[in-house]
Specification:
Layout (H helix, E strand, L loop, with lengths): L6 H5 L6 H12 L10 E9 L5 E8 L13 E5 H7 L7 H10 L13 H6 L4 E5 L2 H7 L4 H9 L3 E4 L6 H14 L6 E4 L3 E6 L2 H21 L17 H15 L4 E5 L2 H7 L4 H4 L16 E3 L2 E7 L3 H6 L1 H8 L6 E6 L3 E6 L2 H24 L7 H9 L1 H10 L9 E5 L4 H12 L3 E6 L13 E5 L5 H15 L4 E4 L15 H27 L6 E5 L12 H21 L5 E7 L10 H10 L4 H5 L10 H11 L11 E4 L8
Parallel strand pairs: 5-6, 13-14, 13-16, 14-15, 16-17, 17-18, 18-19
Antiparallel strand pairs: 1-2, 1-4, 2-3, 4-7, 6-7, 8-12, 9-10, 10-11, 11-12
The structure holds zinc ion.
């Protein structure tokens, strides 16, 4: 591992925290050192308070900040002397510790200081860097890990046995570090957790981290345990119902819907098919920050090895606390390994899926290296339980309880590149759903760049293309809970005697046939939706009140309406509800070109302006009005409603 330090780059970081921000970002850039908010850094500064008194302030990474992108505001200034005194207390609960850190922070609005703040405070050096380096964990989590760490570092580091992060660890280090350090000491290794380095300057502390990690890498390389080729594995045919079924079972275990992502990249598939997978996968996380272990869960009638937080039995044995804790109990795994699906990540949000996958990708490397050294040895059950259910994690879970209405759910929207479909996508994203947008317009792919959106260009009249798109959607988010059938065309106005065969079949094929194809492709997925499947059909006022000149359009929308009614009858037993919206005069959509608008106005003998607000309420209807109703129809308000047809048209005399 090479130092990334560059004088030119460092010079761009000015201000008193400049060097601290710069080397923190250098650590954050390397994913084998820290991942997703893991790791933390600090610097001690002498400052004058309002009374002219000097005091030492510890600037430590605040929670919610990532080292890779941290800014000066991401460091919380805490009173060093006070925090050091805490370390000498005989006991302090973790919530008390968090309270003391928060109340001895010197800037209103600063982020909460890291839970590892006391560790930074007790190390007697200006700059302190802390990572969960893969290389150090690979050695530490192998047989005789502590001896090997000793062999590598000698008295360069003080080695601390595994203790869960929090007050007890800090108090232990405060006692042991001064006693065990020597003149050669430049760091501290916490077994099964990570490594600290320190120095008088930002560069010194950072480069000592690189040096310490490099020593572990060399140790592994010398034992042929560093560059490990992933086991070769060829993917099998993806079956989207399998993935949706797995997601459904894990969601049931969690008690709420979870998104899921399948990745059958060769390294994941190879690991999932590892001959010793049952043993090595159940060893636990590489470090307490990482994924938590659980037991194998029999799913899909075959062995899927799952990780997560399955501690139901533990709770049952500990009945005293059970009632209070049960409300927050989430026994569902966050990672499953499947010989066909590969690495399957679960999460409440699309962002979580990415984090779980990254963490486990590094865990796989650490496991395989430790195996190459002898045997992977992870934390014992007892420790992983402690981590997950310690008071601070519980507080995080409580916060997560206020999730948006569609958190963990997936919506598929057809014709999502513009108009009502685009507005539906926005309405669903706003309510916390992950959305798959389908459209024949290739712009669909890049309409939004956010983790909870996937845009797929697809000819909806082609059953093969729709099936491939649904495979991609399910690989990415795990299933389909909501389906918005929106794509449609409005052919040019023609009296019946002039309707050409092509126009007729075109309207029928897009407005009816394509929706049948999508319903067929999604039925099995909707049936597996943890909260029940929901379909919203964007119909038309032309269904109850057809217009002259719109024969092909009106007939096709009426056929779709009948199809939706039959689907409601057939799929009710599967817990799928299907409701229709009949919009009218939604002029901000792709259908309403100036040409269509003037020809429709003419068909009714009106001016364009009269036609625009030709409704009982004399109001204009927008795509967003329709989309908001579509989203609400998928929510709890319509939980007991199926086969309803609701107009969004400002009121139409011919319908009332
Ligand atoms: Zn740590």
């Amino acid at each position: 591992m090479k130092s990334l330090w560059s004088d030119a780059e460092a010079a761009k970081f000015d201000g008193q925290l400049g060097p601290r921000v710069y080397t923190s970002r250098l650590l954050g850039r390397d994913k084998s050192l820290v991942l997703h908010g893991g790791g933390n850094t600090s610097v001690k500064m002498l400052e004058k308070n309002l009374f002219g008194e000097q005091e030492v302030v510890l600037y430590v990474k605040g929670s919610g900040w990532d080292l890779e992108t941290i800014e000066p505001a991401g460091f919380a200034p805490v009173q060093l002397d006070y925090v050091r005194r805490l370390a000498a207390l005989p006991a302090l609960s973790d919530p008390q510790m968090v309270n003391e850190l928060a109340t001895h922070t010197l800037r209103a609005g600063a982020p909460a200081p890291s839970v590892e703040t006391i560790l930074h405070a007790i190390l007697p050096h200006r700059y302190v860097d802390h990572t969960h380096a893969d290389a150090v964990l690979s050695v530490s989590n192998s047989p005789d890990g502590d001896r090997r760490i000793g062999d590598i570092y000698g008295d360069k580091v003080v080695v601390i046995p595994y203790i869960m992060a929090g007050f007890d660890l800090a108090a232990y280090c405060a006692r042991e570090f001064p006693r065990r350090k020597t003149a050669n000491t430049v760091g501290m290794v916490l077994l099964s957790h990570g490594v600290f380095s320190f120095g008088a300057g930002a560069r010194e502390s950072y480069e000592r981290m690189i040096e310490l990690v490099t020593m572990a890498e060399r140790y592994l390389a010398a034992r042929k345990a560093w560059h490990l080729a992933p086991p070769a594995a060829a993917p099998t045919v993806f079956r989207r119902e399998d993935a949706a079924k797995l997601r459904s079972e894990v969601s049931r275990a969690a008690g709420f819907p979870l998104l899921c992502r399948c990745n059958d990249a060769p390294n994941f598939l190879g690991f999932a098919r590892h001959p010793d997978i049952a043993r090595i996968s159940q060893g636990g996380p590489a470090t307490p920050d990482h994924v938590i272990r659980t037991k194998p869960l029999p799913m899909l009638g075959r062995d899927v090895v799952a990780f997560g937080s399955a501690y139901r039995e533990y709770f049952e044995r500990n009945a005293a606390n059970a009632r209070e804790k049960k409300t927050m109990l989430d026994p569902a795994p966050r990672v499953a390994l499947d010989a066909d699906l590969g690495l399957v990540a679960f999460g409440r949000s699309a962002r979580d899926l990415g984090i779980v996958q990254d963490l486990y990708e590094h865990t796989i490397e650490v496991i395989l290296r430790a195996e190459a050294l002898g045997e992977w040895q992870a934390l014992e059950d007892r420790h992983t339980f402690d981590i997950e259910y310690w008071d601070l994690e519980q507080a995080k879970l409580k916060k997560a309880g206020n999730a948006p209405v569609f958190a963990g759910e997936v919506a598929v929207v057809s014709g999502a590149a513009s108009g009502i479909g685009k507005a539906c996508t926005e309405a669903l994203l706003r309510r916390g759903a992950a959305v798959v947008g389908l459209d024949r317009n290739p712009a669909i792919a890049s309409l939004w760049r956010r983790p909870d959106y996937l845009g797929l260009a697809c000819d909806l009249t082609d059953a093969g293309a729709v099936s491939a798109a649904m495979d991609a959607a399910v690989k990415h988010f795990g299933g389909t809970d909501m389906l918005i059938l929106n794509a449609g065309i409005f052919p040019a106005s023609q009296p019946i005697q002039a309707i050409g065969a092509e126009m007729w079949t075109g309207a029928m094929s897009v407005n009816v046939g394509a929706n049948l194809i999508l319903l067929q492709a999604c039925h099995a997925l909707l049936k597996l939706a943890p909260g029940g499947g929901r379909v919203v059909v964007i119909g038309s006022k032309n269904v109850p009140a057809p217009g002259p000149g719109a024969g092909a359009y009106s007939a096709s929308k009426a056929a779709l309406n009948q199809l939706a009614r039959v689907a409601a009858m057939e799929w009710g037993k599967d817990g799928i509800r299907i409701n229709s919206i009949h919009p009218n005069q939604v002029f901000d959509t792709g259908l309403w070109t100036e040409e269509v608008l003037s020809s429709r106005a003419k068909a009714y003998g009106m001016s364009v302006e009269q036609y625009r607000t030709n409704n009982l309420l004399r109001t204009a209807v927008s795509s967003r009005d329709v989309a908001e109703l579509a989203a609400e129809m998928c929510g709890p308000l319509f939980a007991k409603t199926t086969a309803a047809q609701v107009p969004v048209d400002g009121g139409n005399e011919r319908v009332v």
